[in-house]
């Protein structure tokens, strides 16, 4: 029996060799091919560590044909970067390097996925076109660039082609010029070219129109032109079409409505002149339709929309409905659409009035998003028994919240009615029957919260958002029953209590904790390492005491500013490898800054703020990395020179070392290495030497504060080259993209995605860079408006020479302070060109000559100090000078005369029009002064409102900006 087994084994071995198939499962030649391919790659994460041994078919990402042993699939896609945005462990590091021609040895390869890696902007290898058996090719977000090679057209067996990028991370940078080769992909079913530049490929549509089997086409953000006509529509099997974010300005092309098999159509983020044409009714198979963010709904919504009996998702967000009265849409939503529609999103659209009654007819509705509008009146009064998500936040609803929410919406999982004007008293009765609730937000309303400590909340709650909600003064004890809670946000909730001991132990799932800006006291626990899921902690603006806790390894955001925390900064913070923001400012920390900030340990750290403490010693040499954007060490007791290692902070935008004891010179390498610098603050230190002229080469630098040092020499003329002070900078806040992405999360949403959204919105609305700037003679903290500040402060140094005329060309300068130096010569005659100047301080110098008359053009000037110089002549008595009646701003210039000083200009040799300027003229000037204030106010007020009334676009933009400012200011109160 043993002999027969041996013979059989030898026979199998012989046959295997004869057939060229290794007994280990893969062909030896293909194993060597894979190893040669691996040699060209940089695998920092060890993702190919399993590529050892003889059987390549069991290597990670490799799959062989069970019959032939040929390698048929190579899946090296780094999908974790998509599914685990926060993951930066070994498995998330991308492959880099070169793609070897050795791949051509895999002649039976059918599946190739290199997505979410980074190949340094190289062109897609042309030899990919020789992999004749390929059916699946995914090169999305793999760091490719340049022209897409025509050779891909040789892949006639290809079913799936993905060359796309995504909006939230740098990926491919591809463009297409020739598109004729698409016609050769006769087997293609799926095509994704999102973010591929098609602006120079005018024939893309004709080429794609020849594909007989294509069922999905994604062309978002492609800068394409959309032809209005198509001779013959061949896309008979097309089910999904995404043309979003292409800034298309035409009417919706009629040929779109001949795509009879279309199930999903996305035309969002464009500028179509006519939206929702009546021909939309022809697309009877349509299930998903998005016209979001096309600005307006000209012509309204056609009746034919109601005949889309298969439609389950409709997104009209970011569009102003011109007809105004939404009740007129009752006939549209009385069609068969009322039985099929499951998702309705119409957010950020200036919708007004009360909620229309026809909403109550949508009995299949599962998601209703109407936030960021102007709805007023009562809460929704009708029942939607299938509804799982209801978001009516950020409107102007008044009245009270219905006490029978659980009967109206028994299946609700997501409920948010924050930022309205709802009144009354909110009690636990309002949430009775909402047993499935997972997200609850009722922040920033006018009702009083009176929830009993005995309340048993919906135990499945994961997200609890109650900022600005008057929860206090006691800490809500019912929270400890929520063992599954992931996000607890009680910022500015009126809580004045000691944090209970159970808070850090009631839920092991906590990911986001925000208790900021209350009056919560107590000591921080020694360790929070048991909360392994914790990502975001914000305890700012409270009265916490004790030392800094030990935090779990996954922590990304730690904000403990404005508390009473003592002790030293623990070195354990240096080893939180995923840390992005660390803010320990405005506490009572002592000792040195740990010198353990190895850049390799912090590949993501963007913000480090240790300002306003009692730290001492030198600046650590390890404190910089290529990811650091904001570095604040001001108002401590730090000493020593600026370390050479700061050159490694290549991404730095803000460098704030003010109010310390830093000595030495301002090094020239600072201007040569920190090319992204926007704010440079070295105020109140012990710096000596010249100001480096090289600073003028920093194109983004817009705030310089070197005041109160021992700098000498002249003011460099090169500072007049600072581009950020000479040209306007576009500042905008665009939340619509993030909000639209959030809306598309299904009602069975993934909790990690919602945490991602919450963290992102917290950062946009909550944490922002900030610096203290001396403006108009007082210290002002700039945070939300810091991106708008343009300032130059060289005061209280030992600078000499004249004021460089080149500074006058910094036309966007708002504040200029050169006081307390040894400057001589005249004030530049062209100083009136600084039309946006609000504050000018040239006091305590040796300036001579007269005050330039061009200064009357400085209409924004509200703070001026020219005292203690050697100025002479008459003070200009018109323009903005009349609104500066304080005589002290001219003291110490004994040869000056005129308003507002008591010495008149009777003996000054002036033109005849100015001779005889006596006391009666002085009194007339005072009358003129007050009259000009009144007239200036009236003219300025009506000029602003006239512009806003006449220009609708400016009016909308202005009020959206004001709304945003009010929102962020209100949130901080």
Automatic annotation (TrEMBL):
Residues 29-65 form the Leucine-rich repeat-containing N-terminal plant-type domain. GO terms for cellular component: plasma membrane. It comes from the Eukaryota. Gene3D superfamilies: Ribonuclease Inhibitor (3.80.10.10). Residues 1-23 form the signal peptide. InterPro entries: Leu-rich_rpt, Leu-rich_rpt_typical-subtyp, LRR_dom_sf, LRR_N_plant-typ, LRR_R13L4/SHOC2-like, RLP23-like. Its main location: membrane. It is found in: Cell membrane. PROSITE patterns: PROKAR_LIPOPROTEIN. Keywords: Cell membrane, Glycoprotein, Leucine-rich repeat, Membrane, Repeat, Signal, Transmembrane, Transmembrane helix. The chain crosses the membrane at residues 927-950. Pfam families: LRR_1 (PF00560), LRR_14 (PF23598), LRRNT_2 (PF08263). Residues 103-294 form the Disease resistance R13L4/SHOC-2-like LRR domain. It is a single-pass type I membrane protein. Belongs to the RLP family. This is Receptor-like protein EIX2. It comes from Dioscorea cayennensis subsp. rotundata.
């Amino acid at each position: 029996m043993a002999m027969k087994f041996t013979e059989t084994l030898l026979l199998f071995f012989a046959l295997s060799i004869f057939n060229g198939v290794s007994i280990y499962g893969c062909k030896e030649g293909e194993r060597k091919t894979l190893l040669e391919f691996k040699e060209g790659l940089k695998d920092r994460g060890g993702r190919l560590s399993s590529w050892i041994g003889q059987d390549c078919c069991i290597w990670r990402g490799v799959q062989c044909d069970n019959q032939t042993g040929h390698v048929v699939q190579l899946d090296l896609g780094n999908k974790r970067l998509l599914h685990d945005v926060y993951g930066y462990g070994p498995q998330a590091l991308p492959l880099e390097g070169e793609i070897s021609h050795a791949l051509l040895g895999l002649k039976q390869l059918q599946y190739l996925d290199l997505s979410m890696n980074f190949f340094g902007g190289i062109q897609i290898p042309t030899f990919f076109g020789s992999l004749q058996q390929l059916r699946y090719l995914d090169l999305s977000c793999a760091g490719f660039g340049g022209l897409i090679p025509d050779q891909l057209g040789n892949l006639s067996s290809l079913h799936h082609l993905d060359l796309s990028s995504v909006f939230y991370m740098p990926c491919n940078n591809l463009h297409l010029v020739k598109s004729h080769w698409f016609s050769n992909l006769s087997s293609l079913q799926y095509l994704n070219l999102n973010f591929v530049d098609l602006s120079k490929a005018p024939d893309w549509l004709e080429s794609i129109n020849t594909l007989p089997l294509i069922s999905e086409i994604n062309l978002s953000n492609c800068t394409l032109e959309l032809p209005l006509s198509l001779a013959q529509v061949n896309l008979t099997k097309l089910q999904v079409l995404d043309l979003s974010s292409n800034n298309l300005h035409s009417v919706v092309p009629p040929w779109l409505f001949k795509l009879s098999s279309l199930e999903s159509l996305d035309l969002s983020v464009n500028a179509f002149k006519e939206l929702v044409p009546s021909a939309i009714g022809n697309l009877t198979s349509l299930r998903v339709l998005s016209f979001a963010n096309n600005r307006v709904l000209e012509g309204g919504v056609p009746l034919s929309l109601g005949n889309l009996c298969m439609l389950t998702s409709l997104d009209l967000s970011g569009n102003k409905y011109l007809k105004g009265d939404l009740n007129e849409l009752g006939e549209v939503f009385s069609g068969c659409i009322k039985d099929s529609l499951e998702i309705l999103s119409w957010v950020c659209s200036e919708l007004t009035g009360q909620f229309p009654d026809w909403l109550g007819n949508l009995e299949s509705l599962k998601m209703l998003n109407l936030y960021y509008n102007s709805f007023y009146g009562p809460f929704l009064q009708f029942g939607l028994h299938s509804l799982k998500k209801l978001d009516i936040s950020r409107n102007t609803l008044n009245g009270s919240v219905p006490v029978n929410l659980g009967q109206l919406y028994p299946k609700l999982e997501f409920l948010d009615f924050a930022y309205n004007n709802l009144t009354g008293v909110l009690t636990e009765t309002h949430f009775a029957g909402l047993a499935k609730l997972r997200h609850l937000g009722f922040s920033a309303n006018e009702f009083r919260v009176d929830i009993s400590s005995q309340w048993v909340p919906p135990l499945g709650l994961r997200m609890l958002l109650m900022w600005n909600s008057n929860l206090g003064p006691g800490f809500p004890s019912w929270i400890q029953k929520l063992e599954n809670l992931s996000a607890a946000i009680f910022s500015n909730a009126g809580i004045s209590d000691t944090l209970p001991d159970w808070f850090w132990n009631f839920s092991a799932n906590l990911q986001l904790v925000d208790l900021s800006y209350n009056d919560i006291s107590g000591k921080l626990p020694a360790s929070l390492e048991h909360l392994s899921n914790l990502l975001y902690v914000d305890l700012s603006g409270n009265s916490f005491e004790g030392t800094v806790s030990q935090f779990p390894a996954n922590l990304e955001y730690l904000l403990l500013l404005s508390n009473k925390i003592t002790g030293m900064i623990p070195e354990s913070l240096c080893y939180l490898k995923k840390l992005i923001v660390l803010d320990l400012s405005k506490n009572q920390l002592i000792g040195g800054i740990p010198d353990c900030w190895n850049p390799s340990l912090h590949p993501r750290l963007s913000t480090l703020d240790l300002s306003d403490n009692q730290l001492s010693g030198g600046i650590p040499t390890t404190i910089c990395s290529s990811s650091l954007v904001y570095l604040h060490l001001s108002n401590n007791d730090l000493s020593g020179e600026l370390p050479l290692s700061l050159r490694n902070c290549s991404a730095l935008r803000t460098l704030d070392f003010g109010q310390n004891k830093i000595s030495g010179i301002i090094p020239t390498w600072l201007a040569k290495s920190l090319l992204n610098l926007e704010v440079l603050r070295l105020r109140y230190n012990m710096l000596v030497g010249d100001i480096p002229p090289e600073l003028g080469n920093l194109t983004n630098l817009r705030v310089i504060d070197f005041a109160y040092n021992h700098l000498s020499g002249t003011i460099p003329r090169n500072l007049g080259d600072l581009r950020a002070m000479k040209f306007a900078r576009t500042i905008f806040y665009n939340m619509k993209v993030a909000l639209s992405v959030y809306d598309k999360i299904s009602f069975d949403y993934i909790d990690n995605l919602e945490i991602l959204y919450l963290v992102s919105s917290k950062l946009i609305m909550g944490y922002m860079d900030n610096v203290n700037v001396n403006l108009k003679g007082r210290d002002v903290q700039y945070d939300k408006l810091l991106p708008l500040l343009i300032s130059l402060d060289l005061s209280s140094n030992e600078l000499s020479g004249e004021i460089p005329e080149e500074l006058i060309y910094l036309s966007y300068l708002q504040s200029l302070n050169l006081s307390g130096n040894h400057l001589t010569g005249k004030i530049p005659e062209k100083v009136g060109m600084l039309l946006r100047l609000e504050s000018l301080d040239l006091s305590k110098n040796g300036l001579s000559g007269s005050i330039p008359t061009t200064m009357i053009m400085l209409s924004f000037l509200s703070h001026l100090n020219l005292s203690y110089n050697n100025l002479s002549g008459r003070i200009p008595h018109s323009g903005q000078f009349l609104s500066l009646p304080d005589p002290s701003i001219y003291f110490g210039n004994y040869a000056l005369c005129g308003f507002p000083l008591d010495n008149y200009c009777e003996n000054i040799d002036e033109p005849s029009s100015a001779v005889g300027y006596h006391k009666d003229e002085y009194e007339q000037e005072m009358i003129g002064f007050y009259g000009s204030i009144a007239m200036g106010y009236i003219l300025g007020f009506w000029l602003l409102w006239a512009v806003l009334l006449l220009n609708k676009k400016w009016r909308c933009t202005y009020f959206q900006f004001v709304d945003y400012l009010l929102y962020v200011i209100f949130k901080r109160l």
